[in-house]
Amino acid sequence: ADIPTAAISRLVTYLRILEQLEAQDISRTSSTDLAERAGVTAFQVRKDLAYFGRFGTRGMGYTVPILKRELVRVLGLNQTWNVVIIGMGRLGQAIANYPGASDYQFQYVGLFDVNPGIIGQRIRGLTVQHVQDLPDFTRHNRVDLGFIAVPPDRAQDAAQGLVDAGVRGILNFAPVVIQPRTLERGGLQEISDEWRAVIVENVDFLAGMKRLAFYTLNPHLKETPTL
Ligand code: NAD
Questions:
Q1: Containing structural domain, residue 32
Q2: Where does residue 134 rank: exposed (0-12), middle (13-18), buried (19+ CB within 10 A)?
Q3: How far is CA 62 from CA 15, 44, 46, 95, 154, in A?
Q4: Are 203 and 113 in the same domain?
Q5: Which of 16, 19, 100, 212 is 20 to 30 Å from 117 at the Cα level?
Q6: Are residues 92 and 70 in the same domain?
Q7: Whose C-alpha lies nearest to ligand 1, atom 31?
Q8: Could you tell me if residue 173 is inside a domain?
Q9: In 10 A of CB 32, how many CB atoms?
Q10: Reported ipTM
Q11: pLDDT by position in tens, the chain (length 227)
């Protein structure tokens, strides 16, 4: 069955709440408690968790470290993720220098740019390389994910470069929609083989600002979480 994207976003939120509970030495929680902290209904919490199994005991709630461990496993955060960043300008450098990613096993293994003034610089123990060396780099190093932090008009090329180099997970920070390469087969446009398994997630800070402007002017149009 398809699992709604919003359910996965909520699992990430539940995990963050469980981490906070653990940091406060709170060892038990319930769907009602998680729901309150996440701003959703208890029914929603139970439904989201039920996609992946049964984690609690009826009427007893959840053990924080166990539910946390299970969510970490479901989200794939118990394995290492080798990440490259394409574009080491202001945002690329800020991302590389942000320590939060290493709470889980995301590790930056390669940093790439095209600017000779940036190539060769050492950032977080890595030397920035020319993006044309990416294919060679991925032949010798396992790369699971690529982050795109290049100017908007370069983002599609950067994505294609990542996909050509065998990277299947892309986090795109540029405010553009990345298009998969298509080819014509029997009069129909089809997604090319190398793009079929590619997952693109967009982080669009400007879109957030625009939504914020709209909802600040039209607060009555915002869906209220059903409690
Ligand atoms: P920037 O100009 O500081 O950095 C972009 C970097 O990409 C430069 O170092 C440039 O040399 C490099 N580059 C250009 N073409 C490349 C290519 N083909 N391959 C590899 N590297 C290449 O820009 P920025 O502010 O870091 O923003 C990067 C992207 O993130 C933009 O799309 C921007 O819209 C988006 N963004 C930025 C911010 C922010 O606060 N800076 C916030 C949200 C989104």
A1: 5-75
A2: buried
A3: 13, 15, 11, 34, 46
A4: yes
A5: 100
A6: no
A7: 151
A8: yes
A9: 13
A10: 0.97
A11: 689 999 999 999 999 999 999 999 999 999 999 999 999 999 999 999 999 988 877 778 999 999 999 999 999 999 999 999 999 999 999 999 998 777 788 999 999 999 999 999 999 999 999 999 999 999 999 999 999 999 999 999 999 999 999 999 999 999 999 999 999 988 999 999 999 999 999 999 899 999 999 999 999 998 765 54
CA of 39 to the centre of ligand 1 (A): 34
Are residues 48 and 139 located together in one domain of the fold?
A: no
Ligand 1 geometric centre to CA of 147 (Å):
11
Q: Find the residues whose C-beta lies inside 6 A of ligand 1.
A: 86-92, 112-115, 118, 131, 149-152, 154, 157-158, 173-175, 205
Given the structure tokens 């009555």, which residue do they identify? 220
Q: What is the token pair recorded at 184?
A: 């014509």
